[in-house]
Amino acid sequence: MAPAGWMLFPVAMNKDIFEDLFVLEMTNNHLGSLDRGLRIVEQFAKIVRFNNVRAAIKLQFRDIDSFIHKDFRERRDIRYVRRVTETRLSKEEYGTLVDAIRRSGCIPLATPFDEKSVDWCVEFNMPMIKIASADSNDWLLIEKIAKTRKPVLVSVGGTSLKDMDDMVTFFENRNIPMAINHCVAAYPHEDSECELNQIDFLRNRYPNHTIGWSSHEYGDWTSSIKIAYAKGARTFERHIDIDDDGAEIAKYSSLPHQVDVWFKAFHKVKEMSGTSATERKIPLAKETAYLDTYIRGVYAKRDLEPGQLLTEDDVYLAIPLQKGQISCRELMLGQFGHRTLTACSKDAPVTIDTIDTPYADNPQLKKVIYQRGL
């Protein structure tokens, strides 16, 4: 039997479930305080709604008692142990945060770091699961996540090519939707370390998957998302925090006003990128009108009589193109060219009604010819 709630994103659905999805990573920014976590949710949900984007707020789930060996749980000299134990939340507190994220209009998301935390993802009815870069070859954890049948987002910072290939094959064989985030696993990293060309590499290597950009740079909230989107990234991640309580803020975390800038940069690059990347666009009306002013029209080089087969000696091309006049684009000369239906004076425009042409039998084309030009 499938876990409750997984049908929110059936396995048969394609990668579009990740399209234009923002992941706001709360990580340990709540500092082990449920109240602080709730304030982060409240403040960022407002920015999400104001910018009309689709966003998930992501937690990190750890069952400390199983995640850290019992002989090391009190070791404050080990940075990672100290950080995760000092910011510990209970399962009930995680549940409160998940409920708050849902009520805010955002999508609840979590990175589970142990098998028990995967069970919490199912119990809390998470629609997707995030796999951290460090766990891209933790096959016991990955197997557990796959059994939930939930779509996954995977960051691949520092991951070897073999591990990436193995993981992609693993989820493809199970028909589980998967997004792959280019990520530089340095906290923070410099602009010169973004390596955004890796988005091209991932798109070419894994064309059936959404490719994303998980960002840890700290000095710019517009450039990398514009470049990443233009390269084809379609899901984006940043760490988030608040600074209204005097707490020390991680350098790689973004504040509400900075995420607001980030979202606006996304809207701008999406606007500028335009429509389809897979088929030719429909020209803008003003674009067509502008170009029409540069199209040469067909003019009579001498007086033309009815029934003449037009040759180069009979017509010439010049601007402006006038309404109803045929242009250089429609002109056909010689044995299989146009024949005049009516007389046309020297230097007068040769119109669609003056000649025998297949264009005259197509009402839509004829209408276009009468609408363009002076």
Molecular structure report:
This protein is an alpha/beta fold. It has helices at residues 34-51, 64-67, 79-86, 91-103, 115-123, 139-147, 161-173, 197-205, 223-231, 256-273, 285-292, 363-371; strands at 21-25, 54-61, 107-112, 129-131, 152-155, 178-183, 210-214, 235-240, 253-254, 297-300, 315-318, 339-340, 355-356. The strands form three sheets. Strands 1, 2, 3, 4, 5, 6, 7, 8 and 9 form a nine-stranded parallel β-sheet that branches. It has a two-stranded antiparallel sheet with strand order 10-11. A two-stranded antiparallel sheet has the order 12-13. Strand 1 (21-25), helix 1 and strand 2 form a beta-alpha-beta unit. Helix 1 packs parallel to helix 4, helix 1 (34-51) runs parallel beside helix 10 (256-273) and helix 9 (223-231) packs parallel to helix 10 (256-273). The model is unreliable at 1-13 (pLDDT under 50).
